[in-house]
Amino acid sequence: MPDSVRSSRPSVRVPTDPEQIVAVAVSIVAGVFIATMVRLNATLGEHIGPLESSFVVHAVGTGFATLLILPRMGAERLRDLRRTPAVLFGGGVLGVTLVMLANIVVPHLGVALTLCVSVAANLAFSTLADHFGWFGLPVFPVSPRRVLGLVLVVTGVVLVAYG
Amino acid sequence: MVFLLAAFNGVLSALSRVVNAALGTYVGSLESSWINHVVGTAFAGLLLLGGLSTGTLQWGGLAWYYWIGGCFGVGVVAASNYAVARIGAVLFGMIVLAIQLATSAGLDHYGVLGGDPIPLTGMRLGGLGLLVAGALLTLTDRGRKTPRPDRRAS
User: How much is the pTM?
Assistant: First the structure.
């Protein structure tokens, strides 16, 4: 591990600028949005079906995203698209599956436990991906600190599951 | 079994973050979210048209706000665009994680927006705390990758 990479370890500083404080508030809203969205989608899924709910979520999201990007549509956007590797357009398939899985799981586990298990698996998978440098990303070997972190995360999930 | 599905969900979301980040370097984050939603709508639509139904797509019987989850998802992408540039991905990720867990525990506890109430016990709260602490250790360990290239035309 070259020093130049290690020394660029991110530091979390307490935000002081007014603009940063707004950014913290925006982050808080994003967290509330995620939990609320997972609950809304799952309830919709219980009424119309998990895949049907995922379809509606993506269709409505398309409409909303269109409104947001409309002001910056232009010819150069099309040029961006043409230069984009085709495989990257597959993210939507992952998205549909993600939402559908959550819709299936939430009625059984509740929102909190679903998110806990999902976050734990996400962190474990990211650690593996970093360790082996999957997807052509730089290699970040597993450290004792990360192992300790993952142990805490898994313990937390067990407590939530049996709490 | 349900736990496995939930874990698979987490793996997929890690994967989709990698794909979205890469797509974002070519077209911008919000555009990337738009593309994901268009492709997702087409994909789910084809599955449904192909006869793969898991329920009945019908109106009625549900308040309007249950139908707008998709707007929240796009809103989160827009929020992360704003916040990550100002406070960094690590702090943004930690705040979002802690708040989403707290909110979800609250939704479960009161059983609001659907679902049976799941009481917030001391053990459950402690578990959520451990999870956030563990995530903090894990996320702050990763050396920050070089800033994402911007491959957009303008």
Answer: 0.89
